[in-house]
Fold this sequence. Notes:
The structure holds 2 protein chains of 2 kinds. Chain A is of the alpha/beta class.
Amino acid sequence: xxxxxxxxxxxxxxxxxxxxxxFGEHHVLRGIDMNxxxxxxxxxxxxxxxGKSTLLRCVNLMETISAGRIYVRDELIGYxxxxxxxxxxxxxxxxxxxxxxxxxxQRFNLFPHKxxxxxxxxxxxxxxxxxxxxxxxxxxxxxxxxxxxxRAGHYPAQLSGGQQQxxxxxxxxxxxxxxxxxxxxxxxxxxxxxxxxxSVMKDLAKSGMTMIVVTHEIGFAREVGDTLTFMDGGVVVExxxxxxxxxxPQHARTREFLSKxx
Amino acid sequence: xxxxxxxxPATDRSGHAAPAPELIxxxxxxxxxxxxxxxxxxxxxxxxxxSLVTNPNFRWDIVGTYIMDVLVxxxxxxxxxxxxxxxxxxxxxxxxxAFMRQSDNPLFRYVSWFWVWxxxxxxxxxxxxxWGLVSVLYPxxxxxxxxxPELFQFSTQDLVTAGVAAVLGLGLxxxxxxxxxxxxxxxxxxxxxxxxxxxxxxxKSKIMWRIVLPQAMRVIVPPTGNETIGxxxxxxxxxxxxxxxxxxFATNGIANRTYLxxxxxxxxxxxxxxxxxxxxxxxxxxxxxFGKGVDNLVQAPVKASxxxxxxxxxxxxxxxxxxxxxx
Lengths: 262, 327
């Protein structure tokens, strides 16, 4: 057991082991196992209600899991194991774990009372105690990277959805996370704005960022994904190389889903 | 490759000059009722104006004599001081109460609920009288361990003077109303804001102060302005304590001496209106501040150094792009 454990830890940045999640009586995750290697882009697809977003939100403790374990770089997420029991982490420890994990939301969730730059420097200056000038310089660099160097002083309400989402990506990157979670990042966007956001995500993948992406963009999964996981009814139905899963799905449910979205 | 015409109406697709469209110049609907209404309103206003000028009982000369009277001006000062101190106390308590109401600790939630229930549920007049009598109820206030040794003590009468009692009475009562306003404001902020800040690793207190509360202020400020104006006038009840230096008491005192109540009511009303107007101006600026990015979409001024950095970054981006295209 120790041997396989060691081999796995060497490779996997994220280990999801036997995770269950109940919302009251509702059993939304029914035993999920999944590994994400360092530098890998792991794409999760599935019908709504399949539990894919819930799974993603468990990784950075937006939701607590009911059973199982999630490790990020061998650190147990949300709990400390001591004396044969799990202990809840304090809010301080939870915040520290979240700092290593960036998250991008379907509805952007930019801070509307802050400009693009202020959104990006908020956490670095307040949480990491970086100096304002240093954080600002970094923020402008990040804005440039997502193609919005000229939008630094704009408020979110003055930006299109696609621009807002790119600022949101820059905001998450400003904390220099080792893992990025994307929760349907293009689902709230007008079709013509999706491409800009996806191309920023592609660049990010190329730069070696480890990413877990919940999406309906099958094209993105095929082009950028290293693994594709199809979830339905709270279980992983099928997982593997994206081209194979999409081109030659093994399960009827996967085929049915893909025929609807392709 | 297609070329888009920059000014569409000037030319049609084939390049010929298109005739300018005939603009609509419709006859507007007439509103005779509005004219009748305006005439009635104007007539009533004229009558009111005439009575103000000609009715000798207004005693405008007395109004003029006392409008800048020392006692009146001092009264304004005390009224303002009471209003400001009570509101500062009330806002501080209200923020605390609203946060407690959202707390994970059930005891905090119950205490907050009880506070609002009690202070909102009893008349402010009763509370003011009670604060005035607190030294009868507790002649000495001592700090110590319950049922144990006493550390030090004060005479209540020295500590809770009439002014302090007035501020406590007004402020504690107001805090209950403001707590509900703040609670509504905090609830109005989208839950995604909290999540986004949490995902960035921010702690709850920081999220409250820097993310949630500033956004909630948009909703909180208008009713709080209302409450402040209400407080300005509620200070006229401090006679109940009894506190006897405020504007209403000062003008009443003069009226009782001169047997001329009406002109002194006008003096008081005039000054309350002036202060209210000033408060409204203040509220306008506060609302504009907290409306930044939502109601008030003026682009944030980019500092010179920041602009230069942005320009450099943009230049770098262009250079990199060209390089990329060149390959």
